[in-house]
Amino acid sequence: MGSWPGRRAAISNYPWKQSSKPHKYHNQAAFVFILRKRKMAKERGLISPSDFAQLQKYMEYSTKKVSDVLKLFEDGEMAEYLQGDAIGYEGFQQFLKIYLEVDNVPDHLSQALFQSFQTGYYIEDTVREDVVCLSDVSCYFSLLEGGRPEDKLEFTFKLYDTDRNGILDSSEVDRIIIQMMRMAEYLDWDVSELRPILQQMMKEIDYDGSGSVSLAEWLRAGATTVPLLVLLGLEMTLKDNGQHMWRPKRFPRPVYCNLCESSIGLGKQGLSCNLCKYVVHDRCAMKALPCEVSTYAKSRKDIGVQSHVWVRGGCESGRCDRCQKKIRIYHSLVGLHCVWCHLEIHDDCLPAMGHECDCGLLRDHILPPSSIYPSVLASGQERKTSKISQKTVDDLSLSTSEALRIDPVSNTHPLLVFVNPKSGGKQGERVLWKFQYLLNPRQVFNLLKDGPEPGLRFFRDVPDYRILVCGGDGTVGWILESIDKANLPFVPPVAVLPLGTGNDLARCLRWGGGYEGQNLGKILKDLEASKVVHMDRWSVEVIPQQTEEKSDPVPFHIINNYFSIGVDASIAHRFHIMREKYPEKFNSRMKNKLWYFEFATSESIFSTCKKLEESLTVEICGKPLDLSSLSLEGIAVLNIPSTHGGSNLWGDTKRPHGDVHGINQALGATAKVITDPDILKTCVPDLSDKRLEVVGLEGAIEIGQIYTKLKNAGHRLAKCSEITFHTTKTLPMQIDGEPWMQTPCTIKITHRNQMPMLVGPPPRSSNFFGFLC
Ligand SMILES: [Zn+2]
Ligand SMILES: [Zn+2]
Ligand SMILES: [Zn+2]
Ligand SMILES: [Zn+2]
Fold first, then answer.
1. Rounded (5°) CA angle 361-367-373
2. Are 85 and 2 in contact (CB under 8 A)?
3. Which residues form the DAGKc domain (predicted)?
4. Which one of the ligands is nearest to 359 CA?
5. 306 C-alpha to center of ligand 3: Å?
6. C-alpha 236 to ligand 3 mean position (Å)
7. Separation CA 179–CA 272 (nearest Å)
8. 339 C-alpha vs ligand 3 centroid, how far in Å?
9. Closest ligand to 258 CA?
10. In 659-730, which ranges are E strands?
11. Which tens digits make up the pLDDT trace of 227-258?
């Protein structure tokens, strides 16, 4: 590629080096011209939201990168289509075909796109309207492409540095801004507001004031002026550009299509938007009005105060929250509901409602869109003082979550929700959908997509937030570990919505053993009434002896719930294998219990663990524990008193008078280790006393009986704050229900830290033992 003098005459001059008035005027005029042209294009309906959605779909499935395609045009088989730096419609179609890997891109789509790039183009001093600039096209698609923002920055730079002098001049930078604005427009931002902000930023980019931008300046700018990144890497899955998030749904009551207003039909399938509850026939989806839900403020005027967002229909209660009279929802599409506060009203009652939305009953948990805004819209001063601008390029891990700023409503506790949609069968996915509606979808993270990090990063500086983990105990352990690693300035308290079976931790924290479709709004209200407890967590170090034998990998290095050696673990081991082999037999909690029983009884044949005390020694806080009078098949170390779905191996303690916590503290003052059986009798498990309960298990039958609640407990051996095992043969072990076979080794368990956990409100019934369970 050479350089073509005058080819970008349509827009010229440095936006931030406006040495003289005429220049400034010229520049703005050019810009207004382009804006107007874009606006006209929009009015002519050139590329609609559904076209844009289609385009993104294509890109999702395509394996090609813009850079690959660009090569073909620059010096490959497509070179014939290139006229200067421009391509005609035919070349453009070829570009799309190769880039999107689609043989027949719909004509209206490619035409609309082509026209959107036509801004008037100079080739050898002649304006050509029938071509588009290849760099513009490439820049546009590369902004949409996945990938690291750093790489995109470098790519866009090289794209426009056509003379390869390592420097962008004013008109080149301006063209990039225009492509960014184009993106912003699809995200429905207020472009006229954005333009001066971007220009100001561009001025700041030119660190040495040379009037042009070097690659180093450009990269540093992209990394330190977050707003660029908003446009370079905004998470596209939450598209925020008016697309509904459809899912098929059958309705148990008569429902009317938001588009054609005729009945969907009882028991017939329609589509319902997860975000706004807009409902349509399958056939009406293409013509649906854009989704009203915007997850963040896209314009300065939207920051701070939240307005109601009314959507027709969706009045499930059938009663008007304004006049308290019935809404006749069974005969036609009537009424309005607000997607944030969930008020339901008559159409006629709308004028009597104010504008301001307080987010309703769940306001304590909600981050309304008015509280989330692109950092680019923060005032200039705030932008400069933002933390990220102090980072150097080297220690930056660029992330889109840093592109959005959170400023929560005061006196609220925004909830960060993590959902493991694979937990608990279909329940997980349903919970994900429901929270997306109840809260701001930006508060709800699907763990299977990117794990916990994006959510933790997004909420990092939010004051007083809480976390809700929806999943099994394993998922909770994963989140706690991520919180550990994230090194947060403030460690938020964690609540649990247990999905699936065997959730001992959730049970101990009074969130129940497994969610069965209860009202999530009610659960969120319980959360408001919950209290913080600082739960101990324990490190496990396994030091194997040198043997030929191979061990399974140790599943975790931290104990949140319990650890065991011997029969208990071997049962869990076999259970685990059976469950993987015959998942259909394990589809309910009741059946799981029966299986445990069956294994436990057949376990008596399985004699690996007979006379465990002969192949194992135990030290508690440095002193050996005498096991000689016992005939053990297992030893369990408990942080929480519930194991394997609600069994209490420690057993009930007659509820002592007074405060349990106080009693434990009192004991602790005199003895770190308790082995005296009389004192042990009075001990109550406490997950925040920095001590573990050690229990001996005498026989397989006994354990089976404990699991099925026919019998209550094992032998209380000790309460201590440190424990070491030495084993002399291969034994089954488990941590938090994950079993493995371990060759002879030394195992050290020590206190690691405490995590703030939320304990649910006490249940109504008094059938409640111990401190928490
Ligand atoms: Zn919607
Ligand atoms: Zn319809
Ligand atoms: Zn509202
Ligand atoms: Zn009313």
1. 150
2. no
3. 410-544
4. 3
5. 8
6. 26
7. 34
8. 6
9. 2
10. 692-697, 715-720, 722-727
11. 565 555 544 445 565 778 888 888 888 899 99
